[in-house]
Design a protein that fits this description.
Low-confidence stretches: 1-43
Number of strands: 13
Oligomer: single chain
Structural class: alpha/beta
Mean pLDDT: 89
Largest sheet: 8 strands, mixed
CATH superfamily of one domain: Periplasmic binding protein-like II
Number of helices: 13
CATH architecture of one domain: 3-Layer(aba) Sandwich
Radius of gyration: 20 Å
Helix content: 25-40%
Order of helices and strands: HEHEHEHEEHHEHHEHEHEEHEHHEE
Length: 378
C-alpha cells in the first residue's frame, strides 16, 4: 500500500549478533515532500507549508492525510518528518516545527519544558507483537503479558519454552533462540509497549519501567516502526513490537494477546475501539495534564490490551512559536480540524480506529481554545 525506502543490509542469517551488524542503515524516502526538513521548505509557489515531526506510528495515516488534504486545500502543503515521538517532542519544544506528534503524552517534565502545550488525540492504533517463526507462518500465536515481559527481559530464551508451548498446544515451536527486536530511537511506540509490560509484570516495572527510551535487558535495536518491521521480516526467530498498520503492510504474523479479562484477543479495529471506549470517560481537557493517560490493559472481554492515541501537540497561544504567522496559524488549525473529522474516514483501511464522538468533541473544544496574539483562530 505504501512504499517506504528502507535499506537494511543483512550480513548474516539468524543470530542476534549478526542482526546487530545489519541494522545500521535505515533511510526514509527523501523524495516525498512529507520528509523534507522544515529548514529547507517554508513556502513555495505561494503555498503555505505546515511543518510537523514525530511519531512513526502515525506515518501511514499522516502521509495519506498529506496527499488527500492537498485535494481539499491545494494551497497548503503538509510536511511531516517521521522521526519518532521522542524527536517530535524535542522539535516541538524547541519550536522548530509547527506541530509535534507523539504516541506518548507529555510527561510532567516535558509539560514544564513546553508551557502552554495542548494535546489533541488525532487517531488510535494498536501495538502488536510481530514475529518471524518459520514453523508458525500464520498470525495467532498466543502470548500473555507476563510471557512477553519475560521474553523482553531475556528470561525466556527459546521459542519452545514451556511458558510459550503450554498456551499453544498443537503448535510446532522450534528450539531456536528468540531474537528480540526493539526500537533504538526515542519512541512513543516503545512508551506504549513498556507501559503495558510495566502493568503486567512487576519485575519489568521495577527493573526497566516505561519511557520512550529504556535500558533494554536484551535484544537488537532498529530505528522506527519501519526498521523494526523490516528487521523482523528479514530475520528468522525474531519477535518485536510495531504498530498494527506496519504488520499488515508487510504481511507479518502477529500474536493474539491475553487481555485483562483472560481472553486471547486479536488486534483489530473492533478490539482496539473496545479498549478506547473503556477509557474515554476519564480523559482530561486538551490543556490539562495527560501524563497519566493510558489505554493499555483496558477492562472488557473484547478489549485488545495494547492500544494508544497519537496526539498532535500544539501551543494554545500559537504566536508562542515565532515560525507561525497568522496565515499559517489558520492553515494549521484548519488541517487539524479536518484530520479529526473528515480525515477519520481514511483511518480504518490503514488499521487505525476513528475517534469516538467523545474524543472528537474534546479535540474540537481544544481547537476552539487556540489563539493567535490572544484572538481565537476558529
Amino acid at each position: 500500500m505504501y512504499k517506504y525506502s528502507i535499506k537494511l543490509t543483512i550480513l548474516g542469517l539468524t543470530t542476534a549478533a549478526v542482526l546487530l551488524a545489519s541494522i545500521i542503515v535505515v533511510s526514509m524516502s527523501a523524495k516525498s515532500s512529507a520528509q523534507i526538513l522544515p529548514s529547507q521548505i517554508q513556502s513555495q509557489n505561494g503555498q503555505i507549508t505546515v511543518n510537523g515531526a514525530g511519531s512513526t506510528f502515525i506515518f501511514p495515516l499522516m502521509d495519506t492525510w498529506r496527499v488527500e488534504y492537498q485535494k481539499v486545500k491545494p494551497g497548503v502543503n503538509i510536511n511531516y518528518q517521521s522521526i519518532g515521538s521522542g524527536g517530535g517532542v524535542k522539535q516541538f519544544t524547541a519550536k522548530t516545527v509547527d506541530f509535534g506528534a507523539s504516541d506518548a503524552p507529555l510527561s510532567i517534565q516535558e509539560q514544564q519544558n513546553a508551557p502552554g502545550a495542548v494535546h489533541i488525540p488525532v487517531t488510535i492504533g494498536s501495538v502488536v507483537a510481530a514475529y518471524n517463526i518459520p514453523s508458525v507462518s500464520n498470525k495467532g500465536l498466543k502470548l500473555t503479558g507476563p510471557v512477553l515481559a519475560d521474553i523482553f527481559l531475556g528470561k525466556i530464551k527459546k521459542w519452545n519454552a514451556p511458558e510459550i508451548q503450554s498456551i499453544n498446544p498443537g503448535v510446532s515451536l522450534p528450539s531456536n533462540d528468540i531474537v528480540v527486536v526493539h526500537r533504538s530511537d526515542g519512541s512513543g511506540t516503545t512508551y506504549v509497549w513498556t507501559d503495558y509490560l510495566s502493568k503486567v509484570s512487576p519485575q519489568w516495572s521495577q527493573q526497566v519501567g516505561k519511557a520512550k527510551s529504556v535500558p533494554w535487558p536484551t535484544g537488537i535495536g532498529a530505528p522506527g516502526n519501519e526498521g523494526v518491521a523490516n528487521a523482523i521480516k528479514g530475520t528468522q526467530n525474531t519477535i518485536g513490537y510495531v504498530e498494527l498498520a506496519y504488520a499488515l503492510t508487510t504481511k507479518m504474523p502477529y500474536a493474539f494477546i491475553q487481555n485483562k479479562a483472560g481472553k486471547f484477543i486479536e488486534p483489530s479495529l473492533d478490539s482496539t475501539k473496545a479498549a478506547v471506549s473503556a477509557s474515554a470517560p476519564q480523559l482530561p481537557k486538551g490543556d490539562g495534564s495527560w501524563a497519566s493517560v493510558s489505554l493499555v490493559d483496558a477492562p472488557g472481554d473484547t478489549s485488545y490490551p495494547i492500544a494508544s492515541f497519537t496526539y498532535v501537540l500544539l501551543y494554545r497561544e500559537l504566536s508562542t512559536n515565532s515560525g507561525i504567522d497568522q496565515t499559517k496559524a489558520k492553515a494549521l488549525t484548519d488541517f487539524i480540524s479536518w484530520a479529526i473529522t473528515d480525515g477519520q474516514k481514511l483511518a480504518p483501511n490503514l488499521g487505525y480506529v476513528p475517534l469516538p464522538d467523545q474524543v472528537l468533541k474534546l479535540g474540537q473544544d481544544t481547537i476552539k481554545s487556540l489563539t493567535f496574539h490572544g484572538t481565537p483562530i476558529s
